[in-house]
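Annex B. Sample input.
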Amino acid sequence: MDQSVTSEDETYRFVPTARGGGSRVYLRMGAAAALVALAALAWIVHGRHQAEAALSLQTETDAVLAVATALPQPDGAATELVLPGSLAADYQAPIYARTSGYVRRWYVDIGAKVHQGELLADIESPEVDQQLHQAQADLAVARANQKIADLTAQRWRRLRATDSVSRQEADEKVSAARASDAQVLAARANVSRLRQLAGFERVVAPFGGVITARNTDIGDLIDAGSGSGAALFGIADTSRLRLYVRVPQDDAAAMRPGLTAGLHMPGRPGVVYRASVATTASAIDPATRTLLVELFVDNSRGELLPGAYAEVHFRVPPQAAGHSFLLPANVLLFRGDGLHVATVDARDRVELKPVTIGRDYGAQIEIVSGLSAADHVILSPPDSLTSGALVRVVKRVGPEV
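Annex B, continued. Sample output.
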């Protein structure tokens, strides 16, 4: 029951409470706070363990070499080989005098188109003419001597038949007749020789073509032969041209008769002329390690000039069709036993393979042996890489990408 105390100013009321209730509330609050603290501590410890595990995994991952790989690309297409070349006439010859004398007249100048046998110049050679006249007179004397010797031999044969003369005398007359026959033949040969020399007073074209040089004029003294002065004329047949190219040794095997090439001239941009391989020197020049190749070019329209520079484009087939591959040039490793490339197997382990290279295209190289189409080749491998090393492939370059 309630008890109250009354005073003049205030009235106080006392309300009874349960004993020990406040202590239990404080205990509950403390336990909750402890649980929260334990949970926070557990969370911090767990997070620290996770961070350490992630750091350890990252460290182990970083310790393994990261590489990019590429698959070898089959080199089944023909490649273009560009080389310098030089044009030359199909036939070209200097024309020298075969007889000595003075130039009486010339009939053609440079650039003139001539036919075989056409007269180019006349040479006046009085010495040869006089020698020819003398030889003809000697021939006439030899024939006269031959005639009398034959008649004498016939008479002595008849006398010998009647034993009017001795055998010795008859044989001498017959021998003299035979000697006179030989003298006639010698005189006739000398006349023929001098007639040919006189014929060389007419300088004619040995074949049809274009006059490329004229090194003589009226009144010039001409010496017979090719070693005592300049040629009278130069002639060239330019209806078909010969193209000479020196091919590097690596591509010499592809130079076979019938192989076609494109001819580009500096003065004719955009125009391509066709040429075909006619023959090769069949030997490598030891000074340049190149093969001299001869091609034929049709020049019936006269657009090309002998002696000109040309750029020759070959379409060269692969050296080992179906077995050669193309790879970036940065895959090679230089070892003491030769060239190698590094490949990655299914367990991400490195395997070094010796290879043989073919042509070098600069950014790419041709591998002719040592690889298969399924090999994953490491790009830009470090020099310290060894077989069996564990790597981590971060990028694969190939048809499957």
